[in-house]
Amino acid sequence: MSVLDRFAAHLSGELGRSPHTVRGYLADLRSLLAFLEENGYRVEDLDVLLVRGWLSRARDAGAGRATVARRVAAVRALTRFLHREGVLAADPGPRLSGPSQQRSLPTVLDEEQAAAALSRPSGDSPSDLRRRAVVEVLYATGVRVAELCALDLADVDRERDTVRVLGKGAKERTVPVGGPALDALDAWLSGGRPETVTPASGSALFLGARGGRLGVRQAREDVHVHLRAAGADGAPHGLRHSAATHLLNGGADLRSVQEFLGHASPRSTQIYTHVSVERLRDTYRQAYPRA
Q1: Does residue 229 share a domain with residue 120?
Q2: In this structure, what CATH number is given to the domain that contains residue 53?
Q3: Segment 205-224, tens digit of pLDDT
Q4: Which residue numbers delimit the Core-binding (CB) domain (predicted)?
């Protein structure tokens, strides 16, 4: 088994990284190994200078800050693994620094836009009922679209009005879900899912047109279709951003929102405070006579 095969197994099996993350890391690291081979080095020769040379070539080729940051993260994970496996005598990863991220503020619906989009009547076909339930649950729970697609029937607890979510790194969390989302789920489960279910459906909560588990691409399309019909625009992650921002606007503390979203670090959640401040600033400019 090659180094990258062993590393891929480590990422998915031991660290619980998503298939998307594993694919991205492996694509970057194949480039690194090709760079080493071109310059007459082996993976056992990896050090800070070689990695910096590889990153420098990527920057010269036009790689952006996000790409370079992702490559640094991939290399750090690899060198940590190789050091643990005894392939590298020392781990150069901690000495590698990536570019600071200039994160843009996420696009969110304001409370009125969200209320208008979610209160809009929808049809009663299985696809209509699923679209409404998908949008309601995404906004009510703030889950990622992949987390929503992975939900099973047993993950919805009607006695406690919660949903059990398996997030990044195979970390489980329980999030509350409101009445309108539960009503939309009931409509889907009584009038939509039974019309779509097949022997291949298993325990999946949301199903695609052929009865299999709903895929991320179709879930994204459900959100676009529903919001466009309501005169709004947005994507599943926009609903997550909106939910977090509206919680903060409503008085929730940052730690609670962090747990709600399943962020490992409060740093990831702090961007939503920036959104709230931007909105406050806009309101101040429009409403305050001496702004």
Answers
A1: yes
A2: 1.10.150.130
A3: 999 989 999 999 999 999 98
A4: 1-83
Domain housing 19: 3-95
Residue 144 designated active-site: yes
Sequence-separated contacts (24+) of 107-113 with Cβ below 8 Å: 107/234, 107/238, 107/241, 108/238, 108/241, 108/242, 108/245, 108/275, 109/232, 109/234, 109/238, 109/239, 109/242, 110/279, 111/246, 111/249, 113/232
Which of 144, 193, 241, 246 is labelled catalytic? 144
- 136 shares a domain with 49: no
The per-residue pLDDT for 282 is 65
User: Does 127 share its domain with 236?
Assistant: yes
More confident residue, 138 or 249: 138
Q: Is residue 223 assigned to a domain?
A: yes
Angle at which helix 111-119 crosses helix 236-249, to 10 degrees, equals 130
Structural domain tally of the chain? 2
Question: Residue 286 falls within a domain, yes or no?
Answer: no
Q: Over the stretch 119-157, which tens digit does the pLDDT of each residue have? A: 877 788 999 999 999 999 999 998 999 999 999 999 999
Residue 209 and residue 90 share a domain:
no
Q: Do both 135 and 187 map to the same domain?
A: yes
Chain center to CA of 271: 15
Catalytic residue among 6, 164, 237, 274: 237
Find the catalytic residue in 168, 220, 274, 279: 168
* Residue 240 bears catalytic tag: yes
Q: Which residue in the list 132, 139, 241, 272 is annotated as catalytic?
A: 272
Q: Are residues 163 and 65 in the same domain?
A: no
33 and 124 in a common domain: no
Q: For all residues of the chain together, what is the average pLDDT?
A: 86
Catalytic choice (10, 71, 241, 263): 263
